[in-house]
Amino acid sequence: MSGKSLPIDLASKDYQAAKRYAIQIYMEGVDIAYRVAQQSKEKYGLSEMEYMAVFEKLLDKAFSPLKYLIQEYEHLPEDIKAIFKTEEEREIDKKITELVSKRLLKIIEEAERFGKSKG
Predict the structure, then answer these.
(1) What Cα–Cα distance (Å) separates residue 20 from each residue in 38, 46, 84, 86, 99?
(2) Hey, which of 39, 46, 97, 111 would disulfide with 50, CB 3.0 to 4.6 Å?
(3) CA–CA separation, 33 vs 37, rounded Å?
């Protein structure tokens, strides 16, 4: 990510969904680290101590700081963000979108009437 780092807004409506996104990414990282370490242990005959060292190094590489994952979440397309939102959060977003659309339609209609009355 480029640009200025912004603070995490713990009060934002997307924060819980962003946390679910981060958890999913971290779970994938653990799975990848485990599989690679396990395959390395089998392929190269690593001792348990060597296996754990490889696993720990892989975990370090797989995890980016939570702050960056949450900021990354903010840049995801809305359809991807929706995957990490609860049904209630999706319903609220839908209602807000409908209300904004209705309000914008009303503003456009009023502007058109105003334009016709001026013409």
Answers:
(1) 27, 34, 6, 10, 27
(2) 46
(3) 6
Residue 64 is encoded by which pair of tokens?
């980016």
Give Cα 82 to chain centroid, integer Å. 9
- Cα–Cα distances (Å) from 82 to 16, 101, 112, in that order, read 12, 19, 35
Report the C-alpha gap between 57 and 75 in whole angstroms: 28
Distance CA 112, CA 80 (A): 36
- Give the model confidence (pLDDT) of 57-86 as tens digits: 998 888 877 778 888 888 999 889 888 888
Residue in this structure with the two tokens 């903010």, named with its chain if needed: 74
**C-beta atoms surrounding 25 within 10 Å:** 16
pLDDT < 50 regions, the chain: 1-2
The domain spans of the chain are 13-85, 86-119
Q: Distance between CA 60 and CA 14 in Å, rounded?
A: 27
- pTM score, whole prediction: 0.59
